[in-house]
Design brief:
This protein is of the alpha+beta class. The chain has 14 helices and five strands. It is elongated and about 95 Å long.
Length: 431
């Protein structure tokens, strides 16, 4: 149904609430590319100072970080599991291992190593992987601490080198993130120092080994922090380059290639989850006349301002705003339409008109305006992605036929969509 046009220069209730609680002419003076660049700069500062990006980028980084370290962790886990099986089996055969030790090795250590190994093939479970890896390294570290302390009691303190080496392995070699490595290393160090005092190793040796452990942990912490910070910086730069390749150079919105790939993915997800999809096609009214009157530089500036309004409509992670081509844009919203989503097309139309960009060649008003075709679809077996986009296209065509500067909404339920049928029928009728 068509949305009623409002008086020229009037006010659309809810404009500023939907588009970021900012007055027109303040927030919208900032272009989409400028907003995007400032957000990337903020991510870099946050990611390096606190070793944490914002939630969405942090999730991507953690999956990326664990994938970098899988090749060197998998062989160690396989070797560790084989060692547990070998030493435990040999001890049972020679009857020189206690039942408690055998149970710990086969019922605790072996399943722990295997579970960690399985998680290396599922990067999305990075949180579980980090926890299991840290627990595995902690268990091995406690075993090494016990062996080192027992060796010291028997007059062979040079085994302490193994303790130092393992702490450096935890900090640097296996890809634990800084805070996980810190917790693991400090627990191992704390247990070892407790053993030094509890077993009365000797004051001089105790003092030497405590100072060594403090120094080793300090060096390890500094190196681990710098390593993760450097990796985060490289990830952020890589993500920026990829993002720039996916965006339209003029408006800063996603380009048509990204839009096409996104639609394929989101359509399949909508079909799986039976979730509603809202597709909006947005066209600037009489834009060719605008370029002819005001020039292409003014046309480019107008495209940027309109793109800024449209970009504010993609508020949720699965929403997408893209430049569809020329003066056409696409805005796709995933999920059931709430009150804000239902009002959004009309509010976008109002906010574009409130930019007050003069357009002497428009028959729709004295300012630059847009027409919007909206298709609200619940994907099913009888529906196609091409048909869904066609429905939005036909709604946009109808908005233009009925005078422009308006919103036409079409809702798909059980009515089949025949590509190209709408325009052919309208033209045949008018002929």
């Amino acid at each position: 149904m068509a949305q009623p046009a409002r008086p020229r220069g009037g006010y659309c209730p809810g404009d500023h609430r939907i588009l970021g609680n900012a007055l027109p002419g303040i927030l919208l003076q900032v272009s989409v590319p400028e907003q995007h660049l400032s957000s990337l700069v903020a991510e870099r500062r946050r990611g390096l100072s606190r070793l944490r990006f914002s939630s969405f980028v942090e999730e991507e980084f953690r999956q990326y970080y664990v994938r970098l370290n899988f090749p060197k962790v998998r062989p160690l886990l396989v070797i560790a599991a084989a060692a547990v099986i070998g030493f435990t089996s040999l001890g049972i055969y020679q009857q020189n291992i206690s039942a408690l030790t055998a149970i710990f090795g086969l019922a605790v250590m072996l399943p722990l190593f295997m579970a960690t190994l399985v998680c290396t093939y599922e990067p999305q479970r990075h949180a579980m992987y980090q926890a299991l890896l840290a627990l595995s390294l902690l268990c091995l570290g406690l075993i090494i601490s016990s062996l080192t302390l027992r060796a010291s009691l028997h007059g062979t303190p040079y085994h302490f080198a193994g303790q130092v080496t393992w702490i450096m392995v935890v900090w640097l070699a296996l890809g634990l993130r800084f805070w996980s490595a810190a917790a693991t290393s400090l627990l191992i160090t704390g247990c070892y120092i407790w053993g030094l005092y509890n077993w009365d190793i000797g004051p001089r040796q105790t003092l030497f080994e405590v100072l060594m452990l403090v120094g080793v942990n300090g060096i390890g912490a500094l190196c681990c922090f710098q390593l993760e910070a450097t990796t985060r910086d490289a990830f952020r730069d890589k993500r920026m380059l990829e993002d720039q390749a996916e965006r339209d150079g003029l408006t800063g919105l996603y380009n048509r290639r990204v839009y096409n790939a996104y639609m394929e993915r989101i359509w399949r997800q909508s079909q799986r989850e039976q979730s509603q999809l809202t597709v909006m096609l947005i066209d600037i009214d009489h834009f060719k006349r605008y370029n002819d009157i005001y020039g292409h530089q003014a046309g480019d500036d107008a495209l940027k301002k309109v793109a800024g309004v449209i970009a504010m409509g993609a508020q949720r992670p699965l929403d997408l705003a893209a430049r569809y081509g020329g003066e056409e844009f696409a805005l796709v919203l995933y999920g059931s339409a709430n009150d804000s989503n239902r009002d959004l097309p009309e509010q976008i139309r109002c906010n574009v008109e409130d930019l007050c960009i003069p357009h002497a060649g428009s028959s729709a008003g004295s300012f630059l305006t847009i027409s919007i075709g909206v298709a609200v679809i619940t994907p099913g077996a009888e529906r196609s992605l091409a048909g869904a986009v066609q429905m939005a296209d036909e709604a946009l065509y109808q908005a233009k036929e009925e005078g422009r500067n308006r919103v036409i909404v079409k809702e798909s339920r059980l009515t089949p969509i025949e590509t190209g049928r709408f325009r052919a029928d309208r033209r045949a009728a008018s002929g």
